[in-house]
């Protein structure tokens, strides 16, 4: 059994319709699916279905509604047919032990350390940041801040002592 196809006169009407309404229909398809390529495929499928039904549509002024309904129905059918990658089992699979630290815990420790550094006096904070975050030597840090190397050594030593005693950091290390 063959599907009836539009006559040449109907075909030219359909072509004119697609040229006129194509961009609007594509916007509608993009509203139905987040991926632009999927939206183009959806529109193509809906237009193919419309083309096959073109001679059965009595009122060609109502074609917009027909195509939009076809878009929605086609998208719904695609959604229902989508592949499900989840399978039920009686037992939960064991998570692999990678030996890597928990990224959430690492971020929590990083945040606690930054808060502790922010509580240091400005001069000590600057020295700690330059020494350990900017990876500058004691000499470079002293030159940058315009102080002696001994001042950098003693200030950094006091700052590290305060960080070791910070209660928030003690909780996150344990």
TrEMBL record:
<dbReference type="GO" id="GO:0006352">
    <property type="term" value="P:DNA-templated transcription initiation"/>
</dbReference>
<protein>
    <submittedName>
        <fullName>RNA polymerase sigma-70 factor, sigma-E family</fullName>
    </submittedName>
</protein>
<dbReference type="InterPro" id="IPR013249">
    <property type="entry name" value="RNA_pol_sigma70_r4_t2"/>
</dbReference>
<keyword id="KW-0238">DNA-binding</keyword>
<dbReference type="InterPro" id="IPR013325">
    <property type="entry name" value="RNA_pol_sigma_r2"/>
</dbReference>
<dbReference type="GO" id="GO:0003677">
    <property type="term" value="F:DNA binding"/>
</dbReference>
<keyword id="KW-0804">Transcription</keyword>
<keyword id="KW-0805">Transcription regulation</keyword>
<keyword id="KW-0731">Sigma factor</keyword>
<dbReference type="Pfam" id="PF04542">
    <property type="entry name" value="Sigma70_r2"/>
</dbReference>
<feature type="domain" description="RNA polymerase sigma factor 70 region 4 type 2">
    <location>
        <begin position="111"/>
        <end position="163"/>
    </location>
</feature>
<feature type="domain" description="RNA polymerase sigma-70 region 2">
    <location>
        <begin position="19"/>
        <end position="83"/>
    </location>
</feature>
<dbReference type="Pfam" id="PF08281">
    <property type="entry name" value="Sigma70_r4_2"/>
</dbReference>
<dbReference type="InterPro" id="IPR007627">
    <property type="entry name" value="RNA_pol_sigma70_r2"/>
</dbReference>
<dbReference type="InterPro" id="IPR014325">
    <property type="entry name" value="RNA_pol_sigma-E_actinobac"/>
</dbReference>
<dbReference type="GO" id="GO:0016987">
    <property type="term" value="F:sigma factor activity"/>
</dbReference>
<comment type="similarity">
    <text>Belongs to the sigma-70 factor family. ECF subfamily.</text>
</comment>
<dbReference type="InterPro" id="IPR014284">
    <property type="entry name" value="RNA_pol_sigma-70_dom"/>
</dbReference>
<dbReference type="InterPro" id="IPR036388">
    <property type="entry name" value="WH-like_DNA-bd_sf"/>
</dbReference>
<dbReference type="InterPro" id="IPR013324">
    <property type="entry name" value="RNA_pol_sigma_r3/r4-like"/>
</dbReference>
<dbReference type="InterPro" id="IPR039425">
    <property type="entry name" value="RNA_pol_sigma-70-like"/>
</dbReference>
